[in-house]
Specification:
The protein has about 290 residues and is of the alpha/beta class. It has 12 helices and 10 strands. Helix 2 (about 25-35) packs across helix 6 (about 130-140). The two termini are about 20 Å apart.
């Protein structure tokens, strides 16, 4: 059976991690992480703190390419971009580390962690607990867990491992069923990817429709396809806690100006709505 692109990426990632385990076995990386953790200050979960702002927070992404768009940034001064994001007021930075389809690298994350003080999300296709320990060693404050490539038990296990390491977990969903799966697994941060990772079609209203499924005590992030001030105004009105923006910023010559325009879209902060989990299905089918 032919794999869709998401399954293909997940399979390639599994192969990549098996190779890395031969260089640094799982028990060894756990030993290193635990040793480092002993010298850490108490866990403060900076990624989650950064998203708990009075206004919508911006997670700005650093990526060179994507399967749907090809090369996004021919020139890729990732350290300069990270510094620019921080200076522009980004709440956090998402760093692509998947090498084959997004041309990312663990090196990017490791080096960016040394030049900025805001929290970093390791953006990758987490298919093995090994990758969560890796993220900790690389300097990340959060990992991405995608419901589409994990089952309920594995997702819950990965969230527990991440929290045990002081890492936040951004649990990515694309449907009502996946939002419920994330909540059942104990997610504290739920993202809705407006892009269907199987077909690459984008529907930015998906975040608006799924927002009401996420209770107020769980942080809500809208991801992908956000490119206009109008998009941000709508997210504010629906009570989103954060927006993850990648391609729009990566293609911008003046990233600081673009981020500023997003921040003050519609005059800036509006009164946030609160939501409760509905008692019955709303019938969305994605």
């Amino acid at each position: 059976m032919k794999l869709n692109i998401l399954q293909e990426i997940a399979q390639r990632t599994k192969e990549r991690i098996e190779t890395q385990k031969k260089v640094l076995p799982l028990d060894k990386i756990i030993e290193i992480v635990n040793s480092d953790a002993a010298n850490d200050s108490p866990f403060t979960f900076p990624f989650e703190k950064a998203l708990k702002s009075e206004d919508i927070a911006f997670i700005c992404e650093i990526k060179k390419a994507s399967p749907s768009k090809g090369i996004i940034a021919e020139k890729f001064p990732y350290l300069d971009i990270a510094k620019e994001y921080e200076a522009a007021g980004a709440a956090a930075i998402s760093v692509l580390t998947e090498p084959f389809y997004f041309m990312g690298s663990d090196q990017y994350l490791r080096e960016i962690a040394d030049v900025v003080s805001i929290p970093l999300l390791r953006k990758d296709f987490t298919v093995d607990s090994y990758m969560i320990y890796e993220a900790k060693l690389l300097g990340a404050s959060a990992v991405l867990l995608i419901c589409s490539i994990l089952n309920q038990d594995t997702l819950a296990d990965y969230i527990t491992i991440a929290h045990g390491l002081g890492l936040s977990a951004l649990v990515e969903t694309h449907s009502e069923e996946e939002v419920k799966m994330a909540l059942s697994a104990g997610a504290r941060i739920i993202g809705v990817n407006n892009r269907n990772l199987k077909t690459f079609t984008v529907d930015i209203t998906l975040s608006e429709r799924l927002r009401s499924l996420v209770p107020p005590d769980v942080l809500f992030v809208s991801e992908s396809g956000l490119s206009t001030q109008g998009d941000i105004v709508k997210l504010r009105e629906t009570g989103a806690d954060a927006a993850l923006i990648g391609e729009t910023l990566m293609r911008a010559a003046d990233k600081k100006a673009v981020l500023a325009s997003m921040k003050f879209a519609g005059g800036g902060k509006v009164e946030r709505k609160t939501f409760s989990t509905p008692e019955r299905s709303s019938g969305f089918d994605y």
